[in-house]
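assembly run, all chains below
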Amino acid sequence: MTIRDLTAKDMSGLAEAGDALSRTGFQATNAGRAIEIIKKMKKEQATVFLTFTSNMVASGLRGLFAEMCKRRMVDAIITAGGSLDHDLIRSAKKYELGDFVMDDAKLHRSGTNRIGNILVPNECYVYLEGFMKETFDALYAKDRTTCPSEIARAIGERTKPDSFLHWCAKREIPVFCPGITDSAIGLQAYFYKQRRRDFAIDVTKDMSRLAQLSLNASKTGGIVLGGGISKHHAIGVNLLRGGFEYAVYVTTSSPWDGSLSGARTNEGISWGKIKESANHVTVDGDATLAFPLIIAPFLK
Amino acid sequence: MTIRDLTAKDMSGLAEAGDALSRTGFQATNAGRAIEIIKKMKKEQATVFLTFTSNMVASGLRGLFAEMCKRRMVDAIITAGGSLDHDLIRSAKKYELGDFVMDDAKLHRSGTNRIGNILVPNECYVYLEGFMKETFDALYAKDRTTCPSEIARAIGERTKPDSFLHWCAKREIPVFCPGITDSAIGLQAYFYKQRRRDFAIDVTKDMSRLAQLSLNASKTGGIVLGGGISKHHAIGVNLLRGGFEYAVYVTTSSPWDGSLSGARTNEGISWGKIKESANHVTVDGDATLAFPLIIAPFLK
Amino acid sequence: MTIRDLTAKDMSGLAEAGDALSRTGFQATNAGRAIEIIKKMKKEQATVFLTFTSNMVASGLRGLFAEMCKRRMVDAIITAGGSLDHDLIRSAKKYELGDFVMDDAKLHRSGTNRIGNILVPNECYVYLEGFMKETFDALYAKDRTTCPSEIARAIGERTKPDSFLHWCAKREIPVFCPGITDSAIGLQAYFYKQRRRDFAIDVTKDMSRLAQLSLNASKTGGIVLGGGISKHHAIGVNLLRGGFEYAVYVTTSSPWDGSLSGARTNEGISWGKIKESANHVTVDGDATLAFPLIIAPFLK
Amino acid sequence: MTIRDLTAKDMSGLAEAGDALSRTGFQATNAGRAIEIIKKMKKEQATVFLTFTSNMVASGLRGLFAEMCKRRMVDAIITAGGSLDHDLIRSAKKYELGDFVMDDAKLHRSGTNRIGNILVPNECYVYLEGFMKETFDALYAKDRTTCPSEIARAIGERTKPDSFLHWCAKREIPVFCPGITDSAIGLQAYFYKQRRRDFAIDVTKDMSRLAQLSLNASKTGGIVLGGGISKHHAIGVNLLRGGFEYAVYVTTSSPWDGSLSGARTNEGISWGKIKESANHVTVDGDATLAFPLIIAPFLK
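ok done. output:
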């Protein structure tokens, strides 16, 4: 294929720009390929695993995740504990825009927490505390031992329609969160357990359901935004079936330190976490810029 | 300002998405700020310096640069020698899409040169050789000693309307290229000089014209894509006037190694290369993804 | 302080090079600062939390971690599930050096898994399977419900002295692993649970012990290598005490995407995860290059 | 080869650590490979091209460059104009350590310029102004038209033995600087030309000498620190001979944007800028951390 220049006429329709992008070179090409691969996932009715990191739920991407769940574009979500924190908080409270470089001591004294250029007031966590106490009470009443996907569902049943957990609960899309204790919700679980000694979160409880999603699917696709435990858990569980048929990574990390977060899709092939025959691409860039471009054609 | 989620309705109009982007967080916010700052450059009729690296001219961004020149959105371009190479070649020849990981020894044996995921056949440089011989002959006939902006203009007079140099020649936008010998054109200059010993490229010849652009402007704005000599030359010459009033950087480099390529706009303030009172932003990301989003509102 | 040039005489003693490094500029300065901060942690007998990602345990850094534990330089480790995988495997099996770019389909067909430029033969996981079956049997015999630190300890009791888990078991250093199911060990837990339905890993069980380490310390220090859940869990639990007094981050990630992995120490101050008055530094670089330089003075 | 853990005993002798490093994995392995490749360059008496960016001359690496020149470890240097600025200034003036995040407006008002975490007082440039006026006078007296390598040599004849230009002048190592006008020296050239209209810097004048170095060598090696024009000029001129036999890159840039700065050695093979049969490696990391480790064995 030949490189073609973008022209002014491409601009007004970036949402339909898959073709133009795929011919631009560098990461625009990779974004274009990502669009093509997601098209195939949909056409082949693959079971889609969406993963993202918690900072993305603090950003405007949260709206895209909610929309994707509402439209049942995904079959499972794997994410960090912080994603649950931010989703439930933002269903009731507002985050503010700040800057990447601020006086952090001053922020601290004013009760403001910074995530890149997004600001989270302390009161948000007061709200979360009350919310989770009720949620844990409800869960505990049913069973002393709960698990991350049950917690996510119980939260989603109480949040508003701007929340991705709301739509996951409504559409019965399981949300897996293998590292759930590492979050504000986890901290509340610690406080809760001090009162209810037999309260437990058994993380093995979710594994069978997650494994079945991988084992029972005729094809699977991964939309993997950022790195960390969520990324690895998605590819790890797909190892059980010999790997993803379709995989799209969006990452800002580099592979040269051997990190999983920076690993390209091809590294996954050596492990059998992505199939040798898979359609796969890694898009290098911040998801707030790259992902709207990639997902726009499916949400317009 | 409050973080607002992107929704499906934002998607079809990313070109008009400045407002939505500026409220998304992370780099989408910075892209949104870049749009606002370019709006101000235009409103205040600032003298605009556009800089980019040569790989971008190998990509589809070349079309945007040409369009910007055609519409006189810029008053000066500062770029690397390779940008002239790619612009003149692509006015006659085609580059192909490849992949970031290929068998480079095999490519070499097949006469194909790789720039990231863009492929440049050897024949392109044969074409450039003939083109430049004529161009140098024409320049030499006028004056034994030429300079980079004269070379760029002479090229632009011979290329087609898909070329940014074409429009720079037509619109009398000077193209500065302080490191011109580091390019295929530079190599041809070396061969040319072997026949014409008194052929010279005097790089000091361009400095007065460039300095006047900075000194005579009531306001200046920089749109700085990527790093290297082009970036530094733009901010360096604006030091003469106490700095840019408006500056937008788009970069994939990090500042932690003290490199100029990774330096944020704020570092430029310490030098007086950007004014303390300037509107400025650094967008982190590959320009093929970020720049179409930023410039779309002005080219639609 | 004034920048001083490195000279040939500095070279033979990089282990004592803290002073020289701190005066070199850029990341060498930050490595020098890291050495100074770790000196203070030791002098003030701070409770030290060491965190690292699993790829580092696949690398030669594992030896440094083991040595640090042997010498009781750390009071708690927080790490990913994969760190336990690699530590127990490498106590019996060997990993090989490869390259960052290889034919991953070919690797897959030959039963070789790639982590950056490190190669892990499939047989390693066969070994892990047998090892973990016994380990889970032993744990299950004691209590139907276990937790990550108990699993880590049970592994350490069976590995050899080249293993960090061995020394953690011996020196009674707890190893926390909040996302343990995301690992080969986690996969074995899933298989184990299919036979023993009441086998459970309660991740809330570790939280009290971890919290006490933070709450009871007069001072705390963090040595945080890489990002992910391990990094956040360390700073998250130190929130309970108002933050770390000392913090050293080594990372290859950038903060511009708002990710926790790329967040600098100063972002932690806004949250109260690092004290306003803390001594802290972020070293940008691959830990296999940076960490030996930083820790050498303490292990020579 | 098998991954071996670093142990405490490796630490005191990092200078001799080539073997250990090459077995550590990730970038330590690449640093180890770099040492091996430089050993071969020396053994095979290759013509060595050293390139670096100007920020490195503002750092303590300047001392290593001077030492390498003193010992004739290099046959040619290709660098940015700013490298000449910093080298001549630091031969008389001091730079101070700062921080990567400072109040840049305040720095500006105090006459302090920031390069990452290195601070350059304004008076340094007053000194450079006087120094260059004399240097240009001396050059102009000899010939109206000068070239970058002659300027570099004239500077080196006036600087002290802590300067790399001093040793280049003494050891007759040419210093090429294709983009020389983009620097403080370039700015002085502009001022100088306003008084002496026929003063010229002909950048084609250096090309023959540089080309001969490539064409006449039986083997060539590149030690390429950072990116930009210096990196490309070194590999570009080696195209004339079919490429480097040995190449070591140290970079913080990524290849995913198609930039030359981030391009790995293998991309150079497709161009014939590095030989298919070459020994080559790219080390990812900040040169102030990586380069002392790599060069230590040769300077101890």
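Residues 151 and 177 of chain A are 9 Å apart (CA to CA).

Chain A touches chain B through 59 residues (CB under 8 Å).

not gonna interpret more than that til we talk
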